[in-house]
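Propose amino acids for all 387 sites.
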């Protein structure tokens, strides 16, 4: 009861902030009312992450059980590292690095397998982005070697590949290609990180070529994306992965990359449509174009991150998209409970050609899909320079 009352007080306070902010139509991404400052929120959410055990992916494939660190943990870790560097909090950054050290020794069994015999491994290999991010600062060779193993193996065909894996590999793409929109964060993130730490353009070219493939194959006329070719629904978080993935690759790739104009045009087209579907309170929905579907927080945070990045880099109009991002950020905070767990997060979701499949997905509190994206926003808003 006490927790419920505290949550209600926090929500009521933040709702008052939303009302005043919505009425002002502010597009300021630097100054926020008390209780909604990105630094304050980011510190609380990062602390919450440090108190949370590693999330594990469990799967049964025949007689084999898989237990390893999953991609939502990776995305939250990345956000926390970015945020701690943006606010220049070395003590917090070191705590996040110290969390990784046991993965070289006592927790090594939690590392995603490099040559697995299972499907959907694209969700595992993004793990390599974390040691590469840490290497940028500490220059410890073991972090570089570990991260590059995942980046390189995304393009090395495994033993006994199936026909689909071989088809994409033979065309020059990652054998992990499956044309699900989730992939455009999972593949591009680790490849882009590999480019940043090595300077080797093969990594960013891989990421860009993979992105263009997905744009050609699955972006719709309105700029949004079906979850997959056989799942014709504009699922919120799926589109969030694509929005964040495009924003990330645009901020990392060289200006003269030949694929940049196409990716930037696709990104802007998506952002324009998202602006049209944003609810009055700043939120987006589980199914973006369905006004009867429930408001979902992880997708809202991902779209917010993509817009903040666009405004800060001059790709998007600062008034229109700054106002949308600010409104979404403050609205998202009303979904935090007293422990800084984000509510109304859609659970992990595979593809299915079914409206009810998406509408009826369980809603979770504190799920790292949401915590990660909220941290990305706190980082982007806290950074004084272009992303």
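Proposal:
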């Amino acid at each position: 009861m006490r927790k419920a009352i505290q949550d209600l007080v926090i929500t009521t306070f933040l709702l008052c902030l939303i009302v005043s902010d919505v009425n002002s139509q502010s597009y300021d991404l630097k100054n926020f009312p008390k209780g909604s400052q990105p630094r304050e929120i980011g510190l609380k959410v990062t602390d919450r992450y440090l108190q949370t055990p590693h999330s594990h992916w469990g799967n049964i494939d025949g007689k084999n059980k898989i237990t390893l660190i999953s991609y939502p943990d990776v995305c939250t870790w990345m956000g926390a590292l970015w945020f701690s560097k943006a606010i220049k909090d070395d003590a917090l950054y070191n705590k996040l690095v110290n969390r990784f050290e046991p993965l070289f020794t006592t927790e090594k069994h939690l590392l995603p397998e490099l040559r697995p015999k299972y499907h959907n491994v694209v969700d595992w290999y993004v793990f390599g982005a974390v040691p590469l991010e840490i290497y940028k600062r500490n220059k410890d060779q073991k972090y570089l070697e570990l991260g590059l193993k995942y980046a390189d193996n995304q393009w090395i065909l495994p033993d006994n590949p199936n026909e689909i894996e071989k088809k994409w590999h033979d065309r020059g793409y990652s054998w992990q290609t499956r044309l699900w929109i989730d992939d455009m964060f999972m593949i591009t993130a680790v490849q882009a990180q590999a480019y940043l730490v090595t300077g080797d353009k093969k990594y960013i070219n891989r990421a860009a070529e993979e992105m263009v493939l997905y744009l050609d194959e699955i972006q719709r006329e309105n700029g949004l994306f079906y979850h997959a070719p056989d799942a014709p629904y504009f699922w919120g978080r799926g589109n969030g992965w694509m929005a964040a993935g495009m924003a990330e690759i645009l901020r990392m790739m060289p200006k003269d990359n030949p694929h940049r104009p196409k990716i930037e045009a696709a990104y802007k087209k998506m952002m324009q449509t998202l602006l049209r579907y944003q609810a009055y309170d700043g939120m987006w929905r589980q199914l973006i174009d369905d006004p009867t579907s429930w408001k979902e927080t992880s997708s809202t945070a991902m779209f917010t991150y993509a817009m903040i990045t666009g405004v800060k880099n001059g790709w998007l109009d600062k008034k229109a998209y700054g106002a949308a991002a600010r409104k979404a950020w403050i609205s998202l905070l009303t979904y935090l409970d007293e422990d800084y767990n984000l509510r109304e997060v859609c659970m992990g979701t595979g593809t299915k050609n079914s409206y009810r499949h998406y509408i009826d997905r369980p809603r979770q509190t504190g799920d790292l899909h949401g915590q990660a994206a909220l941290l990305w926003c706190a980082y982007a808003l806290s950074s004084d320079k272009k992303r």
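The mean pLDDT is 91. The beta strands are 56-61, 64-69, 345-346, 363-364.
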